[in-house]
Input
Amino acid sequence: MSTTGVRTQRAGTTLLITIDRPQARNSVNAVVATLLAKALDELEADPELRTGVLTGAGGTFSAGMDLKAALRGESPNVPGRGFGGVTEVERTKPLIAAVEGWAMGGGFELALACDLIVAAEGAHFGLPEVKRGLIAAGGGVIRLPRRIPYHLAMEFLLTGEPVSGARAGELGLANRVVPTGQAVEQALLLAEQLAANAPLALAAVKAVTLGADGAPEAEAFAAQRTVMAGLMASADVREGMTAFAERRTPRWTGR
Output
């Protein structure tokens, strides 16, 4: 589907979501935020879709907030869903960022909101908000110190200076660092790898991991037991065990 600002395309069981404003470096205005939220709803609602890939058109991931639109009074946030309709959304299905070119400010925060990141060697990640009198309030200040060591995160946040895709890989921000121009291709391959696994198990991994973040271990294990009880009662668990015993590929139903 092609809609001004955001394109979606199905690639097997993956939904490829592309921010399509290359003339504005894929910056996020109100229209883009609404369309990204709609795309994520499509990913969540369709049982045939197992994973999503988020990228940008024209060799740039996203320059973040559209400052010109913001000066006109537009908001790049969607109520209850955060920046770009992405950064504060609870999702059950894995979302992979495929980053080419610049992922700056809110663009970097969109990538941080994803579960995995594939970065081109020539990509650049940065949070320059302090240079504009702001802070990275779309998740950058909260998430980055949870992804990399505190002092390295503070260098991003306090200097506003970007790093390359190669450096992002060294810091552990990117799961894969690939030659420039191959981020989407490699992200789709990674998505296929995830989609081969049980969809309810993928959702359970996300639920337990996010629920355990910052929680005492006793509370985290208690919450995990609740998730596991539902998982163990599923048809997919029985199918996984049966397929293993019969030495065949599982046929997941998501039930």
